[in-house]
Specification:
Blueprint lengths: L11 H12 L7 E4 L9 H16 L3 E6 L9 H14 L5 E4 L4 H13 L3 E4 L3 H8 L16 H12 L9 E4 L14 E5 L13 E3 L1 H12 L3 E5 L6 H10 L7 E5 L2 E3 L6 H9 L14 H7 L3 H11 L6 E3 L1 H12 L4 E3 L1 E2 L2 E6 L7 E7 L9 E7 L1 E5 L19 E4 L4 E9 L6 E9 L16 E2 L1 E3 L4 E8 L23 E9 L11 E4 L3 E5 L10 E6 L9
Parallel strand pairs: 1-2, 2-3, 8-9, 10-11, 12-25, 14-20, 18-21, 23-27
Antiparallel strand pairs: 4-5, 5-6, 6-7, 13-24, 14-17, 15-16, 17-22, 18-19, 19-20, 23-24, 25-26, 26-27
Protein name: Glutamine--tRNA ligase
Family: Belongs to the class-I aminoacyl-tRNA synthetase family.
GO molecular function: ATP binding; glutamine-tRNA ligase activity
Length: about 550
């Protein structure tokens, strides 16, 4: 297993497992698994679940498996398999082996036959509605199915006929024979197999019956030699069924299911159902939309694997469902980016500035540091000429007290360059909009050239008009409104209408020409940005803002 930093020693899951192993050890190596269903894309919560199983195996020098839970042909596809493998590799969690639940179809079916032969399972003809009615409630016991008393011979014959495709979907199911009066609803003769007449993406039309997750999963774990089957806490009530299956099938030293809390992130949607709805309705730009917490979306947004892993390690293992604030994830991202990201100047809302006493047609290259945090990132040359652009909000014609940027008759420093003074404001005669500033510069105030004279309080960034790279810049906010949630038919009401703002004609310094997709930069004063891996072209670079510069987490 690769060397990823591990969690703190005092986590409850690690302690629980270590305590168990101290008095009830396995006689095989530690082995854990991550069992995604290939019907969608991984998200930040998936990354948390992966880390839980991966880190436990790593701590005990064991094995970590990726196993696709592909026992429902109606929703699964190779597209999702490939995406999951790619995302896990990008995130840094390399499995020791990759398996598919569908590879165990014969073994799982033989297990079902064994239960029938033992009188532990039976074929039931109740409809889905009747099954729910017979099941009872949390306060009332269930009622035995009228088909529960079928003979072993009848059940074996019917199961084989069901396997051969003689019955339509819904006509029959295979149920475990446990206890219809159990206080645990999951033990009230749960369904083990159902009929689905559909082509499976891997096995084709070889099967028309498919096992339920609660039946297939413990068998798959046992076949692979899993020691700890770690899953989210909503499966805690399913654990007795997991153990029942393994016990009745006679597995010695069976895997142990243990549960942890599910992770949610503020302002993010992690439900596959609602993400799929947003994708289908065009609310977002596919499963990799930078506003989504899918790993593909986070990657496209510019989040790094290191920052995601660091965020997950800080959370540690949780016992119940918990919600982490997005600001904590952003904090870890900034910590990761600040020492390895080149800072460049980018003007998002340009205002033209003509330096009247600078040589017309002249140009010089100024050397600027690539980072104030890391000198090892070196320097770059930035062209300076007579006409430049500054941010429109870095100029105010009638500034209030305490305003230190550019205004008529005042001076500011151009970052890495000279002092300029605003002498004239040129406006559109029809609208009164400010179109241009006429300024003069002081050639003796070159930044970084030994200047130690007078000072100014304001420094603003700029780009040379003749050398600027035009780009599209996308600014993001959380997809959900504050304190909103997505649920029910009215889920659209929780969406933030300002989650995406597109700046069509931003101007960037020419250093950006060297960027390749997924390169990250600090746009001075604007935040951290990444060159979009999906929409960028050489003619039209597109940058996504990852996070603003300000880190609010430490103030919480």
């Amino acid at each position: 297993m690769s060397g990823i930093s591990e969690d703190r020693e005092n986590q409850y899951m690690l302690k629980l497992i270590n305590d168990e192993l101290a008095h009830m050890p396995f006689h095989r190596e530690m082995c854990t698994r991550f069992p995604p269903e290939p019907n969608g894309y991984l998200h930040i919560g998936s990354a948390y679940a992966i880390h839980m199983s991966y880190s436990i195996a790593s701590r005990h020098n064991g094995r970590f498996h990726l196993r696709f839970d592909d026992t429902n042909p109606l929703k699964e596809d190779w597209e999702y398999v490939n995406a999951i493998v790619e995302d896990m590799k990008w995130l840094g969690y390399e499995p020791d082996a990759v398996y598919f639940g569908s590879d165990y179809s014969d073994q799982i079916y033989r297990a079902a036959v064994a239960l029938v032969q033992q009188g532990k399972a039976y074929l039931c003809d109740l409809t889905a509605e009747e099954t729910a009615e017979y099941r009872g409630t949390l306060t009332m016991p269930g009622t035995n199915s009228p088909y529960r008393t079928r003979s072993v011979r009848q059940n074996v014959e019917l199961l084989e006929r069901m396997k051969q495709g003689e019955f339509p979907a819904g006509a029959k199911v295979l149920r475990a024979k446990i206890d219809m009066a159990s206080p645990n609803m999951n033990l009230r003769d749960p369904v083990l197999y159902r009929i689905i007449h559909a082509t499976h993406y891997r096995t084709g039309d070889s099967w028309c019956i498919y096992p339920m997750y609660d039946f297939a999963h413990p068998i798959q774990d046992a076949i692979e030699g899993i020691t700890y089957s770690l899953c989210s806490v909503e499966f805690k009530d399913h654990r007795p069924l997991y153990e029942w299956v393994l016990h009745e099938l006679g597995y010695t030293e069976p895997p142990r299911q243990r549960e942890f809390g599910r992770l949610h992130i503020t302002g993010a949607v992690t439900s596959k159902r609602y993400i799929r709805a947003m994708v289908d309705e065009g609310v977002v730009d596919g499963w990799d939309d930078p506003r989504l917490p899918t790993l593909k979306g986070l990657r496209r947004r510019g989040y790094t694997p290191e920052s995601i892993r660091s965020f997950i390690r800080e959370i540690g293992s949780i016992r119940v469902h918990s919600t982490a604030h997005l600001a904590l994830l952003d904090h870890h991202l900034r910590q990761d980016l600040k020492t390895k990201t080149v800072g460049v100047m980018a003007v998002l809302h340009p205002l033209k500035v003509v330096i009247t006493n600078y040589q017309a047609g002249g140009m010089e290259l100024l050397e600027l540091d690539n980072s104030s945090e890391n000198r090892q990132l070196g320097t770059r040359e930035v062209p300076f000429a007579q006409t430049i652009y500054i941010e429109r909000d870095d100029f105010m014609e009638h500034p209030p007290a305490g305003y230190y940027r550019l205004s008529p008759g005042t001076e500011v420093r151009l970052k890495g360059a000279y002092f300029i003074r605003c002498d004239e404001v040129v406006k559109d005669p029809q609208t009164g909009e400010i179109m241009e500033l006429r300024c003069t510069y002081d050639p003796l105030t070159r930044s970084g050239a030994g200047f130690t004279g007078r000072k100014v309080k304001g420094t603003i960034h700029w780009v040379s008009a003749a050398h600027a790279v035009r780009a599209e810049v996308r600014l993001y906010e959380p997809l959900l409104l504050e304190n909103a949630s997505i649920q029910g038919e009215d889920w659209r009401s929780g969406l933030n209408p300002h989650s995406l703002t597109v700046v069509k004609q931003a101007l960037l310094e020419p250093f950006i020409h060297s960027a390749t997709p997924e390169n990250t930069f600090q746009f001075i004063r604007h935040g951290y940005f990444v060159l979009d891996r999906k929409d960028s072209t050489a003619e039209k670079p597109v940058f996504n803002r990852i996070v603003p510069l300000k880190d609010s987490w430490t103030k919480r």
